[in-house]
Structures are given as C-alpha cells and as structure tokens.
C-alpha cells in the first residue's frame, strides 16, 4: 500500500490534528513549545511548518510572525499576521532577512533536513537563532524499545479518535525516520548551542541553533 505524503495527511486531518496531538503528548505539547519559543529573539520570526497556528499564543508581542506551511487547509485557519505557502527546502525569503526560525514537530516530515538547514542558514541574519522541537526515539536501547511499543499502541488509538488510523500509524513510523538529534545537528551550517530532552523517556527533544556572526 502506498504511503500518503505528509502534506496530504495533514490536509486531511487538519481539523482534528491539534486536539489529537494534545492527547498524544498527555497535554504537554504547549509547554514543550513554550520552552523552545522562549529561546527565540525578538524581531521577524518564521514559523516553519506552522500548521493551524497552535503556537501563536506563545509568541511575544515583540515577535512578528510569518507562518509558512505547504498544506493550505491548515494554513488557512492560522491566525498569524503573515501567511506563506512553502516548504523548508526552498524558503521564499531573501538572504539574511529573518531574526529567528521556529519549527515544532515538523522535521520528521521534511523531504530533506540538510536542504532545510542550508536554507535556514541562508535566510537568517548573522547571529540569528533557529529553535527546533520534535519527537523521535529515546537514546537508551531499552527506553527505545518500550517507547516504540507504546507509540505502536497509542498512535492507532488516537487515529481512531481522528478517523485516520492509517495517517496516525505514519506518525508512529516517522519517529524512526531520522538520526538522533545529538547526531543530526552536530555538523551543519548552524552551530548547535543547546540540546535538551523532554517527554516520555526523553522521546521529545529541543535544539537551539545559531548562525555565526559575520
């Protein structure tokens, strides 16, 4: 059976997506987002993979938010003052035009992490900050096994609530798609300033990346 693309998945379940994520995170998803957003600077901030705009209430008044997402059904209900359709691999912004980039629970769905990080480095001003929060697997072998068994059970149950069992099974499988963040962000165009683990067995991570001053 052909696996639907992430864009099609989110377009189909956009009305229930945020509520189901709240269940999957045991109500902690907004706290995880806020911990990352608090590390962003003031100024012009790109919300990369903004979806329905669930993070908008967490940004500061001193931050001017541009929401970017490839799925219009989600972006159409986003309350951000600026909305742009697009993908991380080809950002529609000029060089050195953004003070910060925020991305939550998006990196597992990218076509290319490398291209997205290169684009982020291009559009950030010198000294600009990118903060990524996403889900993956814990570091320890036993923790990974327990975590994988848990998401294999919980994801389809949440999918039943959303009427999208197949789509939420994709979320379970996507947790194994990328390397651990400790490896993935170690080398690249942006310097890794901080990485932290959160959630069940540390299955959620946050990372702060900084563009070197020129």
- Shape, please? globular
Assign a percent range to the helix content: 25-40%
Query: How far do the termini sit from each other?
Result: 49 Å
Low-confidence runs: none
Strand content: 15-25%
**Main sheet: strands, sense, barrel:** 7 strands, mixed
Structural class: alpha/beta
Please give the radius of gyration in angstroms: 16 Å
Report the count of strand segments.
7
For this structure, the quaternary state is single chain
Sequence of secondary-structure elements: HHEEHEEHEHHHEE
Structure summary:
This protein is 37% helix and 24% strand. By secondary structure, it is an alpha/beta fold.
Describe the structure.
The protein is α/β, with parallel strands linked by helices. It has seven helices and seven strands.
Salient structural properties:
214 residues; alpha/beta; seven-stranded mixed beta sheet; 7 helices; globular
Summarize the SSE layout with pairings.
Layout: H1 6-24, H2 29-37, E1 43-48, E2 63-69, H3 72-75, E3 82-85, E4 98-104, H4 113-123, E5 124-135, H5 141-162, H6 165-174, H7 181-184, E6 191-198, E7 204-210
Parallel strand pairs: 1-2, 1-4, 2-3, 4-5
Antiparallel strand pairs: 5-7, 6-7
Helix pairs in contact: 1-5, 5-6
């Amino acid at each position: 059976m052909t696996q639907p693309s992430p864009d099609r998945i989110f377009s189909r379940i956009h009305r229930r997506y945020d509520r189901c994520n709240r269940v999957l995170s045991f109500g902690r998803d907004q706290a995880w987002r806020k911990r990352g957003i608090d590390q962003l600077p003031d100024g012009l901030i790109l919300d990369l993979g903004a979806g329905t705009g669930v993070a908008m209430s967490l940004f500061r008044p001193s931050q001017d938010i541009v929401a970017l997402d490839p799925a219009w059904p989600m972006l159409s209900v986003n309350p951000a003052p600026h909305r742009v359709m697009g993908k991380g691999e080809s950002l529609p912004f000029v060089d050195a035009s953004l003070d910060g980039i925020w991305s939550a629970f998006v990196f597992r769905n990218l076509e290319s992490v490398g291209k997205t990080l290169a684009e982020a480095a291009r559009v950030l001003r010198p000294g600009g900050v990118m903060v990524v929060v996403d889900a993956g697997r814990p570091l320890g072998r036993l923790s990974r096994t327990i975590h994988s068994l848990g998401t294999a059970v919980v994801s389809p149950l949440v999918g039943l609530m959303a009427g999208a069992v197949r789509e939420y099974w994709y979320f379970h499988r996507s947790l194994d798609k990328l390397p651990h963040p400790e490896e993935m962000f170690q080398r690249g165009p942006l310097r890794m300033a901080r990485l932290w683990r959160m959630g069940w067995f540390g299955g959620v991570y946050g990372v702060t990346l900084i563009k070197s001053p020129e």
